[in-house]
Amino acid sequence: MKKKDLLDSLPVFLSNASENEDLFSKSKALVLKVVTAEDEDTLIELMPKILKKKYLMLMQPI
Known about the structure:
This protein is an all-alpha fold and about 60 residues long. About 85% of the residues lie in helices and about 0% in strands.
């Protein structure tokens, strides 16, 4: 790739990095909720709520 092509692609790279960072943060929060759940029933109750709250935006079309 030429230098100009790389510079033109920079906004896309930065956008992807931001999305990846957001996804990592959400995944980390989800894992912490899973490992700190008091019991299986609590986990089963929390999972749909957490998934909808944390990941709904990722499922919407761009």
